[in-house]
Design brief:
Blueprint (H helix, E strand, L loop, with lengths): L4 H20 L1 H5 L23 E5 L11 E8 L4 E6 L12 H8 L8 E3 L22 E3 H9 L4 H10 L3 H14 L22 H12 L2 H7 L3 E5 L5 E5 L3 H4 L10 E9 L3 E10 L2 E10 L6 H15 L4 E2 L2 E2 L15 H7 L10 H23 L6
Antiparallel strand pairs: 1-3, 1-11, 2-3, 2-10, 3-12, 4-5, 6-7, 8-9, 9-10
Helix pairs in contact: 1-12, 3-6, 3-7, 4-5
GO molecular function: carboxypeptidase activity
InterPro entries: Beta-lactam/transpept-like (IPR012338), Peptidase_S11 (IPR018044), Peptidase_S11_N (IPR001967)
Enzyme class: hydrolase
């Protein structure tokens, strides 16, 4: 069968129109009803967190967000993951002992709390000078639960060393911690020393620490340890001695008023990181998580007061602010990586709010198809005769 001129032109035009649609309207094929756009697609507010500065989206009557001295901070709803406000959320800073939240998330599931272990002196080698210690002794037998009390309450780097030895060793634990961070969608965290001790290249962010704190609260065992104010720790020569949680928002020590409804999570300090804190509180059926990194105030307890201000603001602002992002981190990274701009995100999609191709996409496809037909005719049949 011979295909006539008109048929050949129509077929060619259809092929080129289809090519035009594929070239100009990829969003129509990937964001239609019932199609999951995948973790790299986001609305503009999500990428606000990758921009420097303070971000909040108040509605009418919303309280003013506090003016804090911290280099980075964030407050979010721990139940929904909605970030209510943040300042330099993805700024990479040394985390100090708040990194122990990630350590616990990584190691705790593999070590039943009732296991008893006799400490080998080699397991305590490498504890950094000036480290916070709970008093783990060589050749003494401890339950794993004792060691976790030492980690959460006394921030004991000696207890971290022993737990890491039980979990495959220091370097292996650091690698597993990074894998866990990536699995949670926390991309800012790089682990060199699992106890949070200052080390070159070791960083996290207010965003990542909030992700770790939120994930920890979902584990009943983690949540129990981080909310514990006091415990007994086995002494070197038998017996035991009391240890008290160094999170002053929990205990009210050193003149810091305890925060009503606080449920943990972890504080930290090193000379390089300054003071850091992940704090979570529950009131009236809502749970908030706040992170504060390196307040520049001269007050040594400013980290607690600034966390208090964030939590107060977050509870007061409930229902009166729109989220600026989400702790569901796998779905909040802008296409092209953290550096991508929110404008680029919305401009790269070629579709309207419900995922349909916008009018200029269709028009462009039609023009491209028509131009293709004209090119085909000229090449195949030569110039068209004119009257």
């Amino acid at each position: 069968m011979t295909i006539g001129f008109a048929s050949r032109a129509a077929v060619s035009g259809c092929v080129l129109c289809a090519a035009g649609l594929l070239a100009l309207a990829p969003a129509a094929a990937t964001t239609g009803p019932g199609v999951d756009p995948g973790p790299r697609t986001t609305d503009a507010p999500a990428s606000l967190l990758y921009r420097p500065g303070t971000h909040v989206r108040p509605r009418a009557g919303a309280p003013e967000v506090p003016d804090l001295s911290a280099r980075a901070w964030l407050v979010a709803d721990a139940d929904t993951g909605a970030v209510l406000a943040a300042h330099d959320a993805h700024r990479k800073l040394p985390p100090a002992s708040t990194l122990k939240t990630l350590f616990a998330l990584t190691v705790m599931p593999a070590l039943p709390s009732g296991i008893r272990h006799r400490v080998d002196p080699k397991e305590l080698e490498g504890v950094g000078p000036g480290s916070s210690l709970v008093g783990v002794a060589e050749y003494r037998t401890y339950r794993v639960s004792d060691l976790w009390n030492g980690v959460f309450l006394n921030s004991g780097n000696d207890a971290v060393r022993v737990l890491a030895a039980l979990s495959g060793g220091w370097r292996t634990t650091a690698e597993r911690m990074e894998e866990k961070a990536r699995a949670l969608g926390a991309r800012d965290t790089h682990v060199k020393s699992p106890d949070g001790y200052d080390a070159p290249g070791q960083v996290s962010s207010a965003f990542d620490l909030a992700v770790f704190g939120r994930a920890g609260l979902r584990s009943p065992e983690f949540a129990e340890y981080c909310a514990r104010a006091e415990a007994s720790f086995p002494a070197r020569d038998g017996g035991s001695y009391p240890i008290v949680n160094t999170n002053r928002l929990l205990t009210g020590a050193d003149g810091v008023a305890p925060y009503r409804g606080l449920v943990g999570v972890k504080n930290g300090y090193t000379s390089h990181a300054g003071n850091t804190l992940v704090a979570a509180a529950r009131r009236d059926g809502r749970t908030l998580v706040a992170t504060v990194m390196n307040p520049r105030s001269d007050d040594g307890y400013a980290v607690y007061e600034e966390a208090r201000e964030l939590l107060d603001w977050g509870f007061d602002a409930g229902g009166r602010v729109d989220p600026v992002g989400s702790l569901d981190a796998l779905r909040s990274a802008p296409p092209g990586g953290p550096e991508a701009d929110a404008v680029a995100v919305s401009a790269s999609r070629g579709d309207d709010a419900d995922g349909r191709p916008v009018w200029w996409t269709i028009a462009g496809a039609a023009l491209l198809g028509g131009a293709g037909v004209a090119v085909y005719l000229r090449v195949r049949w030569g110039p068209v005769p004119r009257d």
